[in-house]
Design a protein that fits this description.
Oligomer: single chain
CATH class: Mainly Alpha
CATH topology: Four Helix Bundle (Hemerythrin (Met), subunit A)
Radius of gyration: 15 Å
Shape: elongated
Largest sheet: none
Order of helices and strands: HHHH
Number of helices: 4
CATH architecture: Up-down Bundle
Length: 126
């Protein structure tokens, strides 16, 4: 079975973002759980292409993938805990996940698929 592409992952992240904005922790937990599951398969499918990159480019892509994965797991942990806290932690984490994934998708399209330039978006702090 083929994994979701970047657009599919972005759709799941947007669903999680909407659930966080609605403060619907049950829907958020379900959406982020689906996202994490899909992300794991997506990263596995990208591995053969990733190993063909130049070492510096591969490091940048792997770091971005790790950031997305870490953000998703933090959001899942917070959502499972009911997003308790004085600040809207889940909404902020969902916003961060969506932003990181958007940048990562662009970087990967450039680096892995040769769309446009082959240089990842280095304007974002790494």
């Amino acid at each position: 079975m083929r994994s979701l592409d970047h657009d599919g992952l972005l759709t799941l992240a947007r669903k999680a973002h909407a659930a966080a904005g609605d403060a619907d922790t049950a829907r958020l937990t379900e959406n982020v759980g689906a996202f994490v599951h899909a992300l794991v398969h997506h990263l596995e499918d990208e591995l053969p292409t990733l190993v063909r990159l130049a070492p510096a480019e591969a490091r940048l892509v792997r770091r971005g993938q790790a950031r997305v994965s870490t953000a998703a797991r933090a959001l899942l942990r917070d959502a499972a805990g009911g997003c308790a806290g004085p600040e809207p932690r889940c909404a902020a984490r969902a916003e961060e996940l969506l932003a990181l994934l958007t940048l990562q998708a662009l970087d990967e399209r450039l680096a892995l698929h040769g769309v446009g330039s082959t240089t990842p978006n280095r304007s974002w702090p790494r």
